[in-house]
Amino acid sequence: xxxxxxxxxxxxxxxxxxxxxxxxxxxxxxxxxxxxxxxxxxxxxxxxxxxxxxxxxxxxxxxxxxxxxxxxxxxxxxxxxxxxxxxxxxxxxxxxxxxxxxxxxxxxxxxxxxxxxxxxxxxxxxxxxxxxxxxxxxxxxxxxxxxxxxxxxxxxxxxxxxxxxxxxxxxxxxxxxxxxxxxxxxxxxxxxxxxxxxxxxxxxxxxxxxxxxxxxxxxxxxxxxxxxxxxxxxxxxxxxxxxxxxxxxxxxxxxxxxxxxxxxxxxxxxxxxxxxxxxxxxxxxxxx
Length: 288
What we know:
Distance between the termini: 43 Å
CATH class of the largest domain: Alpha Beta
Strand order of the largest sheet: 11-10-9-12-13
Order of helices and strands: EHEHEHEHHHEHEEHEEEEHEE
């Protein structure tokens, strides 16, 4: 008797809409969704939704390999992924180990470090904001002086716009620097802050699957200084020239970052100098 096919999801939970969408997609394809989590309490709803949950240290690649090997004895694992950006590279490493299709994990790791990402994009001639890297308050202040207020100040590693703020004055700059470096922000790596030019203009997001552009949407935010999406218009109203230039820049990001498998998205602003890449994300977009 053939084993039932399964999709492995590394971390997630009921509070993550993308995770739920992965589960629903797996079930439509008659795949058994199996979640691997360090905290199985997140999945107290799992039995009702038909999700199997295995408790495992998701920070330990060897432990994940052992658990997937155990699952593979019962199920035919056909895919391993994650709805959590933090574990997307891990899912890529597991996919490589089990000879399954997936993204290049090294490219994912480079992309998730915003400093490395910007260096690679700049080296490939992709238009990005002016930026500086800072590790203490003095560096942040010097970077802001060099770039000129207002500036965007954010963690070099993170997602969901956590810790991202527009600083329009020296007082706001000092306040947010204290928040990031004074112990209130939770860092998973050595604290490293990105100070960058505030590029102004309409905000767009390009959704890609592999090397193909699926569509371009227009995004609107709540009032600064924080960046929380409130509205999405899909497709964006663009001229042919705008569409082609945004598409060209988006595909250039893929090449510069060594990506081209699975879902990705590019956030851009249309400035006086045309499209400027604000951020490239190696995952499905988290916009509304």
